[in-house]
């Protein structure tokens, strides 16, 4: 191959007359972002003005009933239903997840069928079904299958609105929680589990020391989303006569005809409960997400606590 002339092999790149100062580089202009921001501010200002100046909101009525005895009793019942149904969902969901991941085909099929049934039907339908279970099974009995009966009770006597609400909320939540557990557990690399077993670690130790801590990073966010949905889902219990928060405010505005302010009262309490849950979720995610990248608004909050921790450590170093 003939040698190319030197003027074709040596390519000189142009040198800028003035060096580029990267530190002073300006971000590109985005006029569309400014236009959308202005529109958002204007719309938000109109909403705030509407909320503050419209007399139909009746904020004095909101303040009057916000801490009333009837409303507080509804809040307590809402929290009770949430905790009880959540306990059922967490425990039963764990059992279903283990069964679905099991090598036993029968257990896996039963768990899959349960999840398919309870995830595929609306929660309100399930609540009404459990409340009317007496139409399907008028009498519940205990005894030998296809044999004598030792004890029995009428379904309408046993299944009260409270029990129907617990069953409807808890069994429905268990189906979703099972899929959350399953997704978190299978997200852990199998190679890590095999390496731990090769080192002589027992399966229980592998689960609690290797698999579960890593799976929690994927389990916690959807679990708290499920809890928040469960808190709001308790409002469906009012359809079957459960005395939770929405049912309590409905009792009040059915007598006073102040529908809007009473619904605002219920909304404020729902927002308060879910805001507390969001705060708990943040700290749990921060615990299990150490070493991972963060984005969004959590960076601001996390950096604030990180700066406070760094300041405490620096002060301790100076004192020592």
UniProtKB/TrEMBL annotation:
Record keywords, A-Z:
Amino-acid transport, Cell membrane, Membrane, Transmembrane, Transmembrane helix, Transport
The record places domain ABC transmembrane type-1 at 75-281
Would the keyword Repressor be found if you checked this record's keyword annotation? no
SUPFAM superfamilies per the UniProt record, alphabetical = MetI-like (SSF161098)
Residues passing through the membrane, by range: 34-52, 72-98, 127-153, 218-240, 260-284
GO MF terms held by the record: transmembrane transporter activity
GO CC term (a single one) = ATP-binding cassette (ABC) transporter complex
Name of the molecule in the record: Amino acid ABC transporter permease
Q: Which organism is it from?
A: Cryobacterium lyxosi
